[in-house]
Automatic annotation (TrEMBL):
Family: Belongs to the IMPACT family.
Residues annotated as domain Impact N-terminal: 22-126
Domain of life (superkingdom): Bacteria
InterPro entries reported for this sequence: Impact, Impact_N, Impact_N_sf, Ribosomal_Su5_D2-typ_SF, UPF0029_Impact_CS
Official protein name in the record: YigZ family protein
Pfam families, per database record: Impact_N (PF01205)
PANTHER family hit by this protein: IMPACT FAMILY MEMBER YIGZ, IMPACT-RELATED
Organism: Prevotella illustrans
SUPFAM superfamilies: Ribosomal protein S5 domain 2-like
Length: 194
């Protein structure tokens, strides 16, 4: 099991546009953390682009990449949502929502050209995003006597977890976020000195 995953940063919305036979496809790639984020963004797009013919989307959530959905919003089956999800999968991304807004240009494209248009728009939105590799972390909380502080800090320096909370009193405690691959090692090393 890997403890890294790829996503796009939340600092920038990736945008792309594509025109095919007078139909315009406006694509947007967002970093999302949960279903509520997705619902909120989709509601915003429906309000902003109320005059568009279709607002299609696909998303992938979680470092294991098992929570996903694709929606064609009235386009022929698998011509919109599936190509968007295909672009997400081709880049092995997660925690991402891609929305493509279509303004119909009056000319029917047929399923193959429609699929290419949605796929191309999504690819442009991803291309204009910033992709980052993140680590899966596990939170680990432990307590130790004050006199063991030096030994604990030596272990933390070696493994370099992110310190989320620390308390140095009579009985000390810490909560750290450690990279998944180092979680068992950290736990073993801490138990060994206590």
């Amino acid at each position: 099991m890997t403890d890294e995953y790829k996503t796009i940063t939340g600092d920038k919305i990736g945008e792309g546009s594509y025109t095919e036979s007078k139909s315009r496809f406006l694509a947007f790639a967002h970093h999302v953390d949960n279903i509520d984020d997705i619902k909120s963004l989709l509601n915003q797009y429906k309000k902003t682009y109320y005059d568009a013919r279709h607002i299609c989307y696909a998303y992938m959530l979680g470092n294991e990449r098992i929570v996903f959905r694709a929606n064609d919003d009235g386009e022929p089956n698998n011509t919109a949502g599936k190509p968007l999800l295909g672009q997400i999968n081709s880049k092995e991304l997660t925690d991402i929502l891609i929305v493509v807004v279509r303004y119909y240009g009056g000319i029917k494209l047929g399923t193959s050209r429609l699929t290419v248009a949605y796929r191309t728009a999504a690819a442009l939105a991803i291309e204009n995003s910033i992709i980052e590799v993140l680590q899966v972390k596990k939170n680990f909380t432990f307590s130790f006597p004050y006199e063991k502080t030096k030994e604990v800090m030596k272990i933390l320096k070696e493994i370099s977890p992110e310190i989320l909370h620390q308390n140095f009193e009579q009985e000390c405690s810490m909560t750290v976020a450690v990279r998944l691959r180092d979680a068992v090692l950290l736990e073993t090393m801490i138990k060994k000195i206590l």
